[in-house]
Amino acid sequence: MMIEAVPPGAHVLDVGCAGGYLAQPLTAAGCVVDGVEPDAAAAESARAHCATVTVGDYELPELRAALPAPFDTVVFGDVLEHLRDPWAALAATAELLAPGARVIASIPNIAHWSGRLALLRGRFSYAESGLFDATHLRFFTRRSAHELAKRAGYAVDREQFTRGALPLAPTSVESAAARLRPELFALQFVLTLRPSASTR
């Protein structure tokens, strides 16, 4: 969903680019991708798919100031929940955007039915990935994800939902459930954001 939301040929900033799993198909689509990645080993792998990769903490103003802005698109692929202050980081991103640019963010839904069931059972077991990823510093529901965007100075242009696994349910049922009750069945919210007039 994130890849399809990026216009072909766009100048893209991939925040938290990891090993370049998003940058690779974006580059293949004619985009110029610059990455930011805190892990040096992952950043080295991403260099094969990015024009540049900056190793460091995106939340630092001096790092953002050194990036080759402006960008047509900035993507946060399951990144904002790992930041100390995602509200400030997202707000500061507006300074890196070209006119008409968009931010695309994928945000896990802590209120997914599987998370609710775990809490109902009295469990909050951290894991290496997923909703209870041990490196998550923040947790978002659909409402608080929208509040994050609004507080950071953005309007939601488009919202999409990734489906989560429903036991014994066919894919079509999973997709329908995510669309009809995203607060409960969407595993992630994919938001396309535009800066509000007051932030430009």
Q: What are the salient characteristics of this protein?
A:
single chain; 200 residues; alpha/beta; Rossmann fold; 9 helices; 31% helix
Q: What does the model show?
A:
38% of the residues are buried. This protein has nine helices and seven strands, in the order H-E-H-E-H-E-H-E-H-E-H-H-E-H-H-E. The chain is an alpha/beta fold and 200 residues long. It has one domain (9-199): Vaccinia Virus protein VP39 (Rossmann fold, 3-Layer(aba) Sandwich), CATH 3.40.50.150. The radius of gyration is 17 Å and the shape is globular. Strands 3-2-1-4-5-7-6 form a seven-stranded mixed beta sheet.
Task: Outline the fold blueprint.
Elements: H1 2-5, E1 11-15, H2 23-28, E2 32-37, H3 40-46, E3 52-55, H4 61-65, E4 71-77, H5 86-93, E5 97-108, H6 113-120, H7 142-151, E6 154-163, H8 171-180, H9 182-185, E7 186-195
Parallel strand pairs: 1-2, 1-4, 2-3, 4-5
Antiparallel strand pairs: 5-7, 6-7
In short:
With 200 residues, this protein is of the alpha/beta class. It has helices spanning 2-5, 23-28, 40-46, 61-65, 86-93, 113-120, 142-151, 171-180, 182-185; strands at residues 11-15, 32-37, 52-55, 71-77, 97-108, 154-163, 186-195. The model has no long low-confidence stretch (mean pLDDT 93).
Distance between the termini: 27 Å
**What is the spatial order of strands in the main beta sheet?**
3-2-1-4-5-7-6
Number of strands: 7
CATH topological fold name: Rossmann fold
- Cα radius of gyration in angstroms: 17 Å
Question: Can you count the helices?
Answer: 9
Per CATH, the class reads Alpha Beta
Order of helices and strands: HEHEHEHEHEHHEHHE
Q: What proportion strand?
A: 25-35%
CATH superfamily: Vaccinia Virus protein VP39
Largest sheet: 7 strands, mixed
Mean residue pLDDT: 93
User: What is the overall shape?
Assistant: globular
Binned, the helix content reads 25-40%
How many domains would you count in the coordinates? 1
Which runs of at least 5 residues are low in confidence (pLDDT < 50)?
none
Task: Quickly give the structural class.
Answer: alpha/beta
